[in-house]
Fold:
Amino acid sequence: MTALHIALLGYGTVGKGVYKTIQTHQEKLKRIFRKEVKVVAILVKNIEKHHTLDSDVLLTDDFNKIITLEQLDVVIDAIVGQEPSFTYLQQAMNRGCHVITANKEMFAYHGTQLKQIAKEKGVTLGFEATVAGGIPIIQTLRQLLNVNNIQKVQGILNGTSNFILTKMREDGCPFETALKLAQEKGYAEADPTNDIEGYDAFYKAVILSELAFGENPNWEESIRQGIQSITPEQIELFSALGYRFKHVASMEKTEKGIVCSVKPVLVNETHPFYQIEGVQNAVSIDGDIVGNISLQGPGAGMLPTASAIIEDLVYINKHSFSPIFLDEQNGLSVKVSKIYWAMAGDAAVENIPSHIQIIDRPNPNVLIVEASWEEICDIQWPNTYFYQVLGKVLTENTLVSS
Ligand code: HSE
Structure:
């Protein structure tokens, strides 16, 4: 029986999940591919650490030994960072291999080039695992893109951050304790800076933006804020008012291009993201025909990410992924919606400039106001902080919507 020969780059949480899933689901894969699906080589940094693998798998720290294998059909990238991943995947595609990657940072920077090479070489390029773990968001957007114009995409795209915010609120534990737990569970990156400072979510937003709108957000003008400055006291304050912190990436098509922000926001129970807890991710898409679609599911972890990679693998058998190069989307431009903010701290209740409209004062120390991003950034009072409120704001008499 012939086999589909796969090389795995990286044997951390994701690599191990893929290796394990190929073994546990071998019979199903065999039925799909009509041949054995076999990991023939694994690239690791330290060979000594991985002696328990099957003896017929080439375990190596030298990519040259993999790329020169006589039989190699698919290269699966489960390493982090732009390099050497980008170089290895180019080499693999130039050799005629199909490529699947879970590497969001590399793909955010180099996805366009890789799509071009895949097109030229006639190989498939799967990147479902780069965004939102096990949620099939890439395939969903590919399907929608045929006719729908996507107007807005919002998402909780980092499982670690959402897990930390949930733990801090539920258990009242400090940030560091919640982060340590996320690391133990295999959700966080080896260096969790990318998770907690919003880089990971931003890379995922860039990948979604290119797919949904056919263009990248302006990196320089995008807003990226992490969750590291949220304190247990702030969480308690807003919890008492019915709000939860969520770390949300938003991408919207405007006259100025794609406006992208990644930042902590507040949502109350009227917003779909309110229920997205722990390592769950969620993505909400507004298309001009379909309206709003929301998907949710596990955003990180060994098996959810492996699931995305294995589903990509199956596409090799179905048809080639068509690399996405979008035409201009009918000059579509969407008006940026009203923005509401919750302000708290010493000075929040005093001296609000008259152009900032006060919507509500849910308690003596918190104000809900309407203001643009620029207007709110102008307010630089010491000991005053603000978070955007997504969705409906509950006031005493009525609901207002952003
Ligand atoms: N560290 C990432 C997260 C892993 O927490 O979402 C999945 O991309």
About this structure: The chain has three domains: 3-126, 138-298, 340-401. DSSP finds 13 helices and 18 strands in the chain.
